[in-house]
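User: Here's a structure from my thesis project, written as structure tokens. My advisor, Dr. K., wants to see whether a designed sequence matches the one we expressed. Can you design one independently, without my sequence as a hint?
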């Protein structure tokens, strides 16, 4: 009987955790209280059953009805808070983990979106209109070009201004004012690596 209660309780708690997984993933309001209440009640039943069983064993050794009664009652009143049950505590920590994990995954998603946006804005070289491989930043106007492409353009015409539409700098581009943008390069590589090579 006790095993049956425990194994049924295992099954119920498992399926409640599955529901909470879905809530964490899809629901906007993360109200898990009704589920926690169910587990609380299950723990209560288990606790009471366990206590009665233990009390009966203890009381069986009593020879008079009165001592039987007293011993039985004294043992049943021990340890009656379901919140102290291992099952209840495990359930709560599982719920916390599930909700936190989901939050963390959302955070990772938004970081990736941010990365893709950054890269989408900066990946194309303004001279060749092709994806940059080695981005360099003009320290005068902060615009970015591909190193090889700006080098090639300056070789042909040393008096080249920043080609970015709306750029306020009227100066000619100087190679010594271009700084390698390692962070952007890392981002470009990261996005390129995550893209399907067949799409290129
Ligand atoms: Zn510029």
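Assistant: Designed independently from the structure alone:
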């Amino acid at each position: 009987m006790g095993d049956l209660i425990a194994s049924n309780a295992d099954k119920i708690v498992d399926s409640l955790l599955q529901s909470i997984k879905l809530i964490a993933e899809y629901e906007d309001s993360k109200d898990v209280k009704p589920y926690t209440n169910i587990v609380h009640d299950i723990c209560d039943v288990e606790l009471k059953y366990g206590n009665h069983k233990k009390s009966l064993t203890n009381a069986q050794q009593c020879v008079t009805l009165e001592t039987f009664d007293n011993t039985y009652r004294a043992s049943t009143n021990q340890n009656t808070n379901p919140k102290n049950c291992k099952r209840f505590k495990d359930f709560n920590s599982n719920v916390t983990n599930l909700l936190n994990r989901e939050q963390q995954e959302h955070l990772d998603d938004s970081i990736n979106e941010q990365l893709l946006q950054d890269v989408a804005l900066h990946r194309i070289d303004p001279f060749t209109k092709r994806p940059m491989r080695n981005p360099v930043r003009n320290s005068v106007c902060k615009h970015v070009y591909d190193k090889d492409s700006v080098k090639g353009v300056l070789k042909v015409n040393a008096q080249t201004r920043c080609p970015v539409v709306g750029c306020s700098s009227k100066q000619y581009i100087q190679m010594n004012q271009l700084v390698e943008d390692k962070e952007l390069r890392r981002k470009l590589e990261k996005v390129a690596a995550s893209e399907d090579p067949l799409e290129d």
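When you compare it with your expressed construct, this may help: Helices lie at 2-26, 33-60, 65-76, 86-122, 147-156, 182-194.
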